[in-house]
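Feature request, filed as a ticket because there's no other form

It would be nice if the structure record came with a short human-readable summary line next to the tokens. Right now we just get the raw output. Example of a typical job, pasted below so the devs can see what we mean:
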Amino acid sequence: MLFMILAKDKANSLELRMANRAAHLDYIKGAGNRIKVAGPILSAGDEPKPIGSMIIIDAASEGAVQLFCENDPYATAGLFESVEIRHWLKVTGEWVPKD
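Raw output as currently delivered:
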């Protein structure tokens, strides 16, 4: 089952994000092919900065996704203001495999 994780950073937390980025990326890579797509959400303007994260993950349950989120180094460092988990349905796109 696919889920979307939408995490919003706390205000003025770019330094905290960057300090934990390597550990976060290792954590994401450690999830292997369960991660379908992931990346930062960027601020508007001419010099966009990361202000959150979006991840599409394949997991058995919403509870499993919740545990994944809680153990993310960004979360354990206190980066996120909020984290939203939603069921997600792949429909179309270049990276979506044909069933």
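Something like this underneath would help us a lot:
The first strand starts at residue 2 and ends at 9.
The chain has one domain: 2-87.
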